[in-house]
Amino acid sequence: MPLIWLLAAIAVLAAAGMVLGRRRALASAGGDHRVLHSLPSYYGTNVALFAAAPALLVMAAWIVVQPLYVESRVATLIPQAEYSDEGELSLIMSDVRRVADGLNQAIRSGAISAEEVRDMRADVTDVRDRLAQIGIAVGSEVEQTTLTAAQQYRTLDGRGNVAMAVFVLLLAVGGFVWTLMKTDKDYRARNSVENAILTILVAASTVAILTTFGIIMSMLFETVNFFRQYPASEFFFSTTWDPSFSGRGGSSELGIIPLLWGTLYISLIALLVAVPIGLFSAIYLSEYAGKKFRSIAKPLLEVLAGIPTIVYGLFALITVGPLLRDAIASPLGLGTSASSVMTAGLVMGVMLIPFVSSLSDDIINAVPQAMRDGSLGLGATQSETIKQVVVPAALPGIVGAILLAASRAIGETMIVVLGAGAAARLDLNPFEAMTTVTVKIVSQLTGDTDFSSPETLVAFALGLTLFVITLGLNVLALYIVRKYREQYE
Amino acid sequence: MTDATAPAPGARSRVGQGSLLRQDTRTIKRNAAENRFRIYGLTAICIGILMLVFLLTSILSNGLSSFRQTTIQVPVTLVADRLDPEGNRDPAEMARVTTFGYAPLLRDALVGTIADAGIETELDAGDIADIVSDESVAQLRNFVLANPDLLGQTMPVEVLASGRIDGFFKGRVTYATAELDQNISPEQLRLAEALKAEGLLATGFNFDFFTAPDASVTRPEAAGLGVAILGSLYMMLVVLALALPIGVAASIYLEEFAPQNRFTDLVEVNISNLAAVPSIVFGILGLAVFINFAGLPQSAPIVGGLVLTLMTLPTIIIATRAALKAVPPSIRDAALGVGASKMQTVFHHVLPLAMPGILTGTIIGLAQALGETAPLLLIGMVAFVREYPDAPWEGGLFDPATALPVQIYNFTQRSDPAFVERASGAIIVLLLFLFLMNLAAILLRRRFERRW
């Protein structure tokens, strides 16, 4: 647990800085805190910050970089002949890591001494047996190259850890001493502390950018890998989705069209359910309903939005699916499957009702009262006013809301995983099971995955397509909504 | 409406003849249209609410029975020389006796109990033992290993009935279905009924459902939510520890300090887009960045927590900014006026006043994160986990665990209909947690909300 001790040392140093910085500042002012530039506590905080922050930052960076560096150094020890591609090398490396971890554990528990480990040779000692004796399981037989690499890994890793501890401690002490020396009654401690806090605030707000960047990069990187193994034209234009499970590449057909068709078909049905119901609910709630009715009905509808999608999924699987099959599909001879486009679409529609209704509600409420009064004053009935004045005025916003709902529907996962089925099919019959982009992302990325085969990598291409489609819809929707808002403000 | 302002000549003459007390056809038509429109609206709301009721009833009717469990009372004689051949009461030595050593004890005890109670049955001993869950044998073994001193005594043990017997007392299994089922026979059901009549078999509150770990596909009666609830709790801890400080810091910057420039615009656009990115995309991010790149372990609560943190951040930022905006400028002006710095104004005055709003937003964000399933599927939380993770300070955040919604998904993927009951029961538990969190948010808002 050297990391814990290192953190504890830094914490102690920071705490000491808190006290000493304050004391030194007060001493330089002769005990009269009115002479100080800042409040006394700022001097303490300043010293603590400069002792801890740089040290912690360096430590975090070191922890990220060290394994990468050590691995690249150790990987050169493994002869080229042992592996043919990156995948095999990473398998060997994970073996190396496991052996190194095992040896470390053995030393910690005192079963094997450090010297013994250093001089260990695979042809003399059976490392796997030795480790198994003290209850550490190593997968395969340990060969000499692996053992050498593991020993080297241990040495480099240990050296790196020591170097990190020394460097980080030096940095902490250095920061501590340096700021403490600077502390004096005229030193602008508050400004210094506030600048540091502002930096933290800015760093926090970049997390959003980093997330987007991470999403795009992670998917782009693997998608490029995918297109190296599988032609892009096939992916975008082939009408068959038929991944092979045994073979690696070649025999799989990975066309996105049937998946997109399923996605859009289900989303269309969902919108056909959600838009009329949501819109009429919003109109009734904002134009007709009394205060009391509104205060009951609106929260009840919004409960639908708070229910997790897995609940809707189970609802589709055990209630709606069998119901539709027994009541409609089977008697009409349209299908025998409980999971179908209709099942998923209906349930998703229910999920989207509150989404459409609360967005439309806000937009309808934003239409100025003067427009309604004008129409009513000319003798129009309330419904005529709504149909011919309020809705046209709110139309851009409503379209925006519908687009947002569509993007929700396209990206929805659990309802379709449980309600839509897994068969990729290009069909018009809504009582047939079809599948969507999100279902296939889940099925290709769960279970045994091999990140060098196109069958797994295709999930990243699907994810990127999904991301681009939903992003496009969102940007369009936000643009429309924003433009509309400017008209009345 | 153009018709209303410029009616046809014929219409005018009709208006002239009409009475104030009698509506003309056109007015009747327009009023009918008005009423129809109003009814459409009301119907839409009713459909929405009915759907909610339908959904909840369906889940409750399927799931409430999972809170009850059928158990059988059997006095088991713990034969010392069979369970502890060495005779030294050392649990390590005794652990060599597998469940195969315990099964006959339980079987004999059951047969003996039935004979003592005077119940006639044509079943042989093996079929009688089948009315008890396989899990019971393992439970008995664990119990003995934990209390080796009890060897040699006769202990009254409460064992789980098998899933089919349990289903029989909940109405899921009947004599007709048992006829077709190779896992249970009508004769066994009759035996169970006789046991119930003797008071040896009872259906009671299923406390284990909340604490026990998941069980294998063939033992639905033993499956519980213990690991899942713990895993979800750990993830919520991670989300709370990361999303709240980062979200609040980002909001303070954007709301109070950020100048109008490119960088600020970029952050704003990113936040509003992240709020609308499909959740499964965050799962792909977690898989690629946290597991494949950073090398964090699969199915660990820390990875789930990180992914959910990124998902929850936009919600928390949006709520926090609204709360900060709601603090009137006069507060800031007053603080600045008496010489506080901008930073002091924000941290000493604005932030404390905005705190109730921030906490409400955080709770709602956490509730959202608690119900999220799709991203967790991709980072390996679907794995079958029976071991409880360690405490968080012992590195439990890196131990494999599952989460409540993922456990529900797992239950739905198993063929035994008893798992539908378990899944629905788990959903009730999940909804209960969500309800409590939302209630807390509402109460917090009611209690501390200030109108300026």
Automatic annotation (TrEMBL), chain A:
<feature type="domain" description="ABC transmembrane type-1">
    <location>
        <begin position="260"/>
        <end position="477"/>
    </location>
</feature>
<feature type="transmembrane region" description="Helical">
    <location>
        <begin position="303"/>
        <end position="324"/>
    </location>
</feature>
<comment type="similarity">
    <text>Belongs to the binding-protein-dependent transport system permease family. CysTW subfamily.</text>
</comment>
<feature type="transmembrane region" description="Helical">
    <location>
        <begin position="162"/>
        <end position="181"/>
    </location>
</feature>
<dbReference type="InterPro" id="IPR000515">
    <property type="entry name" value="MetI-like"/>
</dbReference>
<dbReference type="GO" id="GO:0005886">
    <property type="term" value="C:plasma membrane"/>
</dbReference>
<keyword id="KW-0592">Phosphate transport</keyword>
<dbReference type="GO" id="GO:0005315">
    <property type="term" value="F:phosphate transmembrane transporter activity"/>
</dbReference>
<dbReference type="Pfam" id="PF12501">
    <property type="entry name" value="DUF3708"/>
</dbReference>
<comment type="function">
    <text>Part of the binding-protein-dependent transport system for phosphate; probably responsible for the translocation of the substrate across the membrane.</text>
</comment>
<feature type="transmembrane region" description="Helical">
    <location>
        <begin position="43"/>
        <end position="65"/>
    </location>
</feature>
<keyword id="KW-1003">Cell membrane</keyword>
<keyword id="KW-0812">Transmembrane</keyword>
<keyword id="KW-0997">Cell inner membrane</keyword>
<keyword id="KW-1133">Transmembrane helix</keyword>
<feature type="transmembrane region" description="Helical">
    <location>
        <begin position="457"/>
        <end position="481"/>
    </location>
</feature>
<keyword id="KW-0813">Transport</keyword>
<dbReference type="GO" id="GO:0006817">
    <property type="term" value="P:phosphate ion transport"/>
</dbReference>
<feature type="transmembrane region" description="Helical">
    <location>
        <begin position="259"/>
        <end position="283"/>
    </location>
</feature>
<keyword id="KW-0472">Membrane</keyword>
<dbReference type="Pfam" id="PF00528">
    <property type="entry name" value="BPD_transp_1"/>
</dbReference>
<feature type="transmembrane region" description="Helical">
    <location>
        <begin position="196"/>
        <end position="221"/>
    </location>
</feature>
Automatic annotation (TrEMBL), chain B:
<dbReference type="Pfam" id="PF11812">
    <property type="entry name" value="DUF3333"/>
</dbReference>
<feature type="transmembrane region" description="Helical">
    <location>
        <begin position="423"/>
        <end position="444"/>
    </location>
</feature>
<dbReference type="InterPro" id="IPR000515">
    <property type="entry name" value="MetI-like"/>
</dbReference>
<dbReference type="InterPro" id="IPR035906">
    <property type="entry name" value="MetI-like_sf"/>
</dbReference>
<feature type="domain" description="ABC transmembrane type-1">
    <location>
        <begin position="229"/>
        <end position="441"/>
    </location>
</feature>
<dbReference type="GO" id="GO:0005315">
    <property type="term" value="F:phosphate transmembrane transporter activity"/>
</dbReference>
<feature type="transmembrane region" description="Helical">
    <location>
        <begin position="350"/>
        <end position="371"/>
    </location>
</feature>
<keyword id="KW-0813">Transport</keyword>
<protein>
    <recommendedName>
        <fullName>Phosphate transport system permease protein PstA</fullName>
    </recommendedName>
</protein>
<feature type="transmembrane region" description="Helical">
    <location>
        <begin position="39"/>
        <end position="60"/>
    </location>
</feature>
<dbReference type="GO" id="GO:0035435">
    <property type="term" value="P:phosphate ion transmembrane transport"/>
</dbReference>
<comment type="similarity">
    <text>Belongs to the binding-protein-dependent transport system permease family. CysTW subfamily.</text>
</comment>
<keyword id="KW-0472">Membrane</keyword>
<feature type="transmembrane region" description="Helical">
    <location>
        <begin position="302"/>
        <end position="324"/>
    </location>
</feature>
<dbReference type="Pfam" id="PF00528">
    <property type="entry name" value="BPD_transp_1"/>
</dbReference>
<feature type="transmembrane region" description="Helical">
    <location>
        <begin position="233"/>
        <end position="254"/>
    </location>
</feature>
<keyword id="KW-1003">Cell membrane</keyword>
<dbReference type="InterPro" id="IPR005672">
    <property type="entry name" value="Phosphate_PstA"/>
</dbReference>
<dbReference type="InterPro" id="IPR024573">
    <property type="entry name" value="DUF3333"/>
</dbReference>
<dbReference type="GO" id="GO:0005886">
    <property type="term" value="C:plasma membrane"/>
</dbReference>
<keyword id="KW-0812">Transmembrane</keyword>
<feature type="transmembrane region" description="Helical">
    <location>
        <begin position="274"/>
        <end position="296"/>
    </location>
</feature>
